[in-house]
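Late entry, evening session. Most of the bench is empty. Finally got around to the prediction I had been postponing all week. Sequence below, unchanged from the version circulated by S.P.
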Amino acid sequence: MLYVGKKEAKKYSGDGYSGMDYPMTDPDINFAVIKIEGRSPKSGFQVNTSCKEMLYILNGKGKMYLKSNTEELHFEQGDVILLDKNECYAFDGIFEAAVPCTPAWTSEQHKYVE
């Protein structure tokens, strides 16, 4: 068992996004809470090259864009989104999500693409 208290979470922020990473020692999974306010990334898309990412929308609503598809996916509080590794995506909206990733997310495998 591993317990990680909120006080141990590492806060981060950027242009239109913020979050809290909960430090885990397990390489198979990690957890974060993210908050998006606007388009993220501001242009282009982002991709995780090594992990699947699941989002449970805690509050708010938004749209998701996939580079491989011209359709917009609309989501709201209570919805779940599963992103596969190597799937290029972008968000737009104002929402907060609980995000586990498997294997554990690292900044080295997260990329921005046009």
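Two things to note before I forget:
The beta strands are 10-14, 17-22, 30-40, 45-48, 52-66, 69-76, 80-83, 89-102, 110-113.
The chain has a mean pLDDT of 95.
Will write this up properly tomorrow.
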